[in-house]
Specification:
The complex is a heterotrimer of chains A (315), B (346) and C (153).
Chain A: H1 2-17, E1 23-29, E2 36-41, H2 64-67, E3 73-77, H3 79-90, E4 99-104, H4 112-117, E5 125-131, E6 134-139, E7 142-147, H5 148-151, H6 154-157, E8 169-171, H7 192-201, H8 208-211, H9 237-250, H10 260-264, H11 272-286
Parallel strand pairs in A: 1-3, 3-4, 4-8
Antiparallel strand pairs in A: 1-2, 5-6, 6-7
Chain B: E1 4-7, H1 11-21, E2 23-30, E3 33-39, H2 58-61, E4 65-72, E5 79-81, E6 90-96, H3 97-110, E7 111-112, E8 115-116, H4 118-124, E9 127-133, H5 143-146, E10 158-162, E11 166-171, H6 174-182, E12 186-187, H7 190-205, H8 216-219, H9 226-233, H10 239-242, E13 250-257, E14 260-267, H11 288-307, H12 317-321, H13 328-345
Parallel strand pairs in B: 2-6, 6-9, 9-10
Antiparallel strand pairs in B: 1-11, 1-12, 2-3, 4-5, 4-14, 7-8, 10-11, 13-14
Helix pairs in contact in B: 9-11
Chain C: H1 2-14, E1 25-30, H2 34-43, E2 52-57, H3 65-73, E3 78-83, H4 94-111, E4 119-123, H5 129-146
Parallel strand pairs in C: 1-2, 1-3, 3-4
Helix pairs in contact in C: 2-5
Classes of the chains: A alpha/beta (315), B alpha+beta (346), C alpha/beta (153).
Chain lengths: 315, 346, 153
């Protein structure tokens, strides 16, 4: 990983020195060793602030609509982040010529919450590194190995595309975990109506899921509208249902499954799951994948005359 | 005031004793989510040791959704209802001490002499408050850096220290002393007291920051370049404020529903764009920069000036949860410590 | 809309007494076909339950999935969207766009655990007044079998 990190810094430095981009958006060291934080590098000498490690979770594409509007920016991006960029380009929110993509091969990023549930003492962590399939957690007390199944974020377990779909420079190789992993959502298969009611009952309406989502770029979200008031601000289960259900519908064929919404939720609502299910349908029924750079039009901005007909055809 | 001990296997008796006298409010664990403070039902098992993440007691005292007035005009008759919470003796158990101290901030907003908020006050008056010092402090805590935590003991009626197989219960007010004197508890031994003192020191020294004791309210600057840096990454969600034990901003909304009008209070935050948006379209905090600055200055400067208490109590929730790792501790070190060091060097 | 649904909800409350419960239906109808179809059914004095509430949209393509979700949030027992037959859209292709969106809305409801039978999508032309009345009757019957919708919360 250290070589990849060096390569990222080198490419960022080159792009800044040549004046090709004014800023490179990447991950920098976090305030604690098991986190990273978005950084905006605008001087070649600051390129050494960029890092690449298993805690580089943020999907930085969320910043593009703001930063790449008026000029060209560089962005360090994992394959999933690049799928977001593909969506933004397709939906004409970002011009391809306005982004310089330093694309990474990726083996997945970690869910620090899972580590805390295990035996690792967060306070003592000094660094995180991949060691084959395992996450090596170096602590003051010595190194601890955490198997991928416990360390990886859910969507990284089932990620099907671990190399950049588009990029200007590509760094590092894709690494797939050697064993087949699955996403497990306890309770979802039993009674869906009850399951989602319980989930939405927890919602505090902080909108972190929406704000962290690269696909949620509307200038005014439907739930911030006063007239018509589609969903009220109060944190009640039915209003949260309305918010999350509508958001899921807005993400059909647009969510690339980075799982940021799930990661940032302070009350553990697996919001990405709804979009994930709908995208599976879109793939099967319309052969559409949001991260596919070949798909010219958005899923719901197109149709075929022989599309599946949802009508019941009763006479 | 004699301190006593609750053996953990006798917790049921203690809760039973309290339940006869009080409505017990305590954190109850939830699947995949932080425990939440609620009035204990018989089947609820409270999470007493304070070791795991929990929502703030604010969510109980100032609910995320609270109906203030309900007007019903069904059948041509107008009924106006103000659903105040019941006034009854309550005991709140196992709030983190930082959260308990944050209630001091809420009190100054909602129990102000000029206007006492009746909804808040119904729950807050007659509340006996016990804070918990867990066996191990969370990595994100930094209470000892924002204030002299010794003074916080007077903000609660008692403290429960988790000593493994027992809680050491220390009373810090008359109310608290009376309560634990009559409760089914054992006497504390000298070993217990020593263990408790050790735990207190651990709490005091947890996450001590370079800015500790640096009179932040004097040193935070309006035009520091750090605000720009924070605003760059901030994605403008409201998590830091919604999960904050002392952030008290709310919105009031009216909703019609057939023959009914409901006026309710819900959370709002200075981090949202529409928080300061005026009716005619002007927004005095038009970009993220003033919004990011506002949250910190409000906590560390304005509230100190206005109330004499520090608005942040170091519970660490925003440190742990911020989606983009904006770390309030780092911001304070950068704004308050580094400039002073530079000045000293010059 | 909100007032009507609430009034309906109140009617429902009262009908908790022995009188027969009738399912409430939100019907979103295209101006150029099914709305005219409903009109035809009405002027021909065809019988269908009065607990259906109609929202007229300029085209089934105008049907935002939010309309459907809001209907369920406000407690309708069933929601129905009717549009012009494929190829007959007044705006040439609005109903084709609607078709994808509605199909996915059905899938979303399924994911959320709401019985798919509570949401009905159909093509109905302006001349099919008969069919419109029959559809409402049929849908009502189906909802009666399913029982009252227990809400989203």
């Amino acid at each position: 990983m250290a070589e990849i990190q060096d390569k990222i810094r080198e490419e960022a430095k080159k792009a800044l020195e040549s004046g090709e981009v004014g800023v490179v958006i990447g991950w920098g060291a976090g305030s604690v060793p098991f986190k990273t934080t978005p950084v905006f590098i605008d001087k070649p000498q600051d390129a050494d602030k960029l890092v690449w490690n298993p805690a580089c979770t943020n999907n930085l594409a969320v910043y593009l609509t703001r930063w790449a509007r008026d000029g060209k920016v560089g962005i360090v991006a994992k394959p999933c982040d690049i799928r977001s960029i593909v969506t933004l380009i397709r939906e004409k929110q970002v011009k391809r010529e306005n982004v310089f993509i330093i694309g990474l091969g990726c083996g997945g990023v970690v869910d620090t919450g899972l580590m805390e549930a295990g035996d690792v003492r967060m306070r003592e962590i000094t660094s995180l590194q991949w060691d084959g399939d395992d996450l090596m957690v170096t602590t003051e007390a010595g190194a601890v190995k955490v198997p991928a199944a416990q360390a990886l974020r859910e969507q990284c377990k089932v990620c099907h595309d671990r190399s950049p779909a588009i990029s200007d420079v590509s760094v590092g190789d894709a690494v797939a975990p050697s064993e087949d992993l699955k996403i497990e959502i306890p309770g979802l298969s039993e009674d869906r109506q009850k399951y989602w009611q319980e989930q939405f009952a927890k919602c505090i309406r902080c909108y972190a899921c929406r704000q962290v989502c690269p696909a949620c770029y509307c200038e005014t979200c439907f739930c911030d509208r006063i007239e018509p008031k589609w969903t009220a601000k109060k944190a009640t289960t039915d209003e949260a249902w309305m918010f999350h259900a509508t958001r899921a519908m807005h993400l059909v064929g647009r969510c690339i499954g980075c799982g940021e919404c799930e990661r940032v939720c302070p009350v553990g609502i697996p919001a990405v799951e709804l979009a994930r299910e709908l995208n599976a349908v879109a793939k099967e029924r319309y052969d559409f994948e949001p991260g596919d750079p070949e798909a010219e039009k958005p899923l719901l901005g197109a149709y075929k005359e022989n599309d599946v007909d949802p009508a019941h055809h009763s006479e | 005031m004699k301190d006593r001990v609750l053996l953990k296997d006798k917790t049921g008796d203690f809760l039973g004793f309290l339940a006869e006298r009080f409505e017990i409010v305590a954190p109850v664990e939830r699947a995949d989510a932080p425990a939440e403070f609620k009035e204990l039902a018989e089947s609820d098992v409270p999470a007493l040791d304070g070791s795991k993440p929990m929502m703030t007691p604010k969510d109980y005292l100032l609910p995320r959704h609270e109906v203030l007035v309900k007007i019903d005009m069904a059948g041509g008759e107008t009924k106006v209802e103000t659903p105040l919470p019941e006034e009854k003796p309550r005991v709140m158990l196992c709030a983190w001490l930082a959260d308990a101290q944050a209630i001091q901030v809420l009190d100054r907003v909602f129990l102000d002499r000029k206007f006492v908020d009746p909804y808040y006050s119904c729950r807050r008056e007659n509340l006996v408050l016990f804070a918990v010092i867990p066996a191990e402090m969370r990595w994100s805590w930094f209470s000892g850096s924002v204030d002299d935590v010794e003074t916080w003991k007077s903000s609660v009626d008692g403290l429960m220290y988790d000593l493994g197989d027992r809680f050491y219960i220390e009373s810090t007010s008359e109310k608290g002393a009376e309560l634990i004197a009559s409760a089914p508890l054992s006497e504390a031994s000298e070993t217990d007291t020593a263990a408790k003192n050790k735990l207190w020191d651990a709490f005091k020294n947890t996450g001590l920051q370079p800015f500790a004791g640096k009179a932040l309210y004097e040193n935070l600057a309006w035009d520091d370049p750090i605000w720009e840096e924070m605003a760059q990454k901030c994605i403008a969600c409201g998590m830091c404020s919604f999960m904050c034990p002392s952030c008290s901003c709310f919105d009031i909304q009216d909703e019609t529903c057939g023959h009914c009008v409901e006026r309710y209070r819900c959370r709002d935050t200075c981090q949202f764009e529409d928080f300061t948006l005026m009716g005619h379209g002007h927004n005095p905090r038009a970009t993220q920069l003033p919004r990011s600055r506002q949250r910190l200055l409000h906590k560390f400067k304005y509230q100190h000036e206005q109330f004499g208490v520090v608005g942040c109590t170091g519970c660490g929730r925003c440190v742990e949860l911020c989606p983009v790792n904006i770390d309030i501790r780092e911001a304070l070190n950068r704004t308050c410590v580094e400039p002073m060091e530079q000045k000293a060097e010059a | 809309m909100s007032e009507e649904t609430t009034v309906l909800a109140e009617e429902k409350d009262q009908s908790a007494e022995p009188q027969k419960w009738q399912p409430s239906i939100l019907a979103i109808l295209c101006n150029w076909c099914s709305y005219a179809g409903a009109d035809l059914a009405g002027s021909a004095r065809m019988q269908y339950p009065e607990t259906v509430r109609i929202v007229r949209v300029p085209c089934s393509g105008r049907t935002d999935p939010m309309f459907v979700l809001k209907g369920f949030q406000r407690g309708f027992d069933g929601v129905m969207v009717l549009g012009c037959h494929p190829g007959d859209c007044h705006y040439a292709k609005g109903n084709y766009y609607a078709r994808r969106r509605i199909a996915l809305t059905q899938d979303l409801l399924k994911s959320l655990g709401i019985a798919p039978e509570r949401f009905h999508f159909e093509w109905v032309s302006a001349s099919e007044g008969n069919r419109f009345a029959a559809l409402i009757n049929e849908f009502t019957h189906k909802l009666e079998e399913l029982g009252p919708f227990d809400g989203v919360a």
